[in-house]
Amino acid sequence: MQALFENISQINTMRYSPDHKVGARARLIEATGALVKKNGFAATGVDGLMAAAGLTSGAFYSHFRSKSELLEAIIENELKRSIELFSDKTREQAVAAIKGYLSPAHVAHPESGCAVPSLAPEIARASESTQYIFEQGVLELKDQIRKLVRDDAKAWSIVVQLVGAVMVARGLPSEQTRKALLKGVAQQVKQILEEGSGPS
Amino acid sequence: MQALFENISQINTMRYSPDHKVGARARLIEATGALVKKNGFAATGVDGLMAAAGLTSGAFYSHFRSKSELLEAIIENELKRSIELFSDKTREQAVAAIKGYLSPAHVAHPESGCAVPSLAPEIARASESTQYIFEQGVLELKDQIRKLVRDDAKAWSIVVQLVGAVMVARGLPSEQTRKALLKGVAQQVKQILEEGSGPS
DNA sequence: GTCTATAGTAAGATAGAC
DNA sequence: GTCTATCTTACTATAGAC
């Protein structure tokens, strides 16, 4: 299973020449990623996806064999960015990233936020290879949080609180309720972080 | 805002004569609810929805003015059932319900499970009236959990851990990872429950 | 690589027979 | 209320010109 991951990564990496920093495909993945996080994958047509990148739908299939292949690429790209939010950071920076994740701004702007609260149910219905990529990303995210709490259970708890809080808050029309939820969850997450901050 | 809720509830209640316990509309909401939780709302057509109830698509609009009105009815119905899982229960029963929520069986069977981990992102993109119904349901769910922990922040934390854990676990192809996540979250939720179990 | 055009299918919704 | 048939639009995907 781990070997499969490595193969997928290799294929994706070697599809482009090393000196092309950001190709057309990468730009497509960026532009469509924002749209898909905002409006959902199933609800967005290929026409709309390509329009977001300033192109027409005919060009889509020069870059992806199918729409579902795009979802896979989006998940890979988006998860990488979410992971970077928590990696190679001081403890203070990581705690600030958690605070930002649980902010009203993140709730209000799915297009520039983490893909998990926007797309997780659609990932659960996607191909197995898409789910493998998702799993690798989630495990890496958990491991980054684990560095802060040095405990797997606590790390998992924080990960699901972050994504659960943002996902639920986005369905709440009342700002008051949204803020109460975010504040409550932030308080509990902070407590877990403090429990785990004994001597290194 | 509260008045709006009452009006919506009244309309829905008074649409049918009081002696009809379960009408055709209610059966439709049940049957389509399971399908929508499994496959997603946007991804499921009216044809498929009605086929799940043994009918054809033409009959759909005798019961709902639009597809989005159905989503609203499904959310209302499904949230009611999720709330009942935690209401009018002894402490032991409620704790057992939490354990069941975080079970592999719940992760494996979205069609018979809670609607929130299946549909929350689609609710976030739905009409404001659908979101009001969602908010009322989520608040009631939180208040049921609050009875166990007597603290709003802790109740919110548990709610988002439950829905976040199931939602993320459903995207993980490895049973090992799924179980580790569920076990870790269950452990942390249990700890919150024990913190809040002082003298009444 | 990107375009226009189009094939083929499925979508949401309506009309009228029964 | 439910059916079949249909309208209109949108969908995923492909073909061929540039």
Report the end-to-end length of chain A measured between terminal Cα atoms: 33 Å
The CATH topology assignment of chain A is Tetracycline Repressor, domain 2
Count up the helices of chain A. Answer: 10
Give the CATH architecture of chain A. Answer: Orthogonal Bundle
The structure class of chain A reads mainly alpha
The largest interface is:
A-B, 53 and 54 residues
User: CATH top level of chain A?
Assistant: Mainly Alpha
As a percent range, the share of helical residues of chain A equals: over 70%
**CATH homologous superfamily label of chain A:** Tetracycline Repressor, domain 2
Shape of chain A: globular
**Mean pLDDT over all positions of chain A:** 90
Measured on Cα atoms, how large is the radius of gyration of chain A? 18 Å
Percent of residues in beta strands of chain A: under 5%
Low-confidence region ranges of chain A: 1-21
Total beta-strand segments of chain A: 0
How does the major sheet of chain A shape up?
none
> What pattern of helices and strands is seen along the backbone of chain A?
HHHHHHHHHH
Question: In oligomeric terms, what are we looking at?
Answer: homodimer
Number of discrete domains of chain A:
1
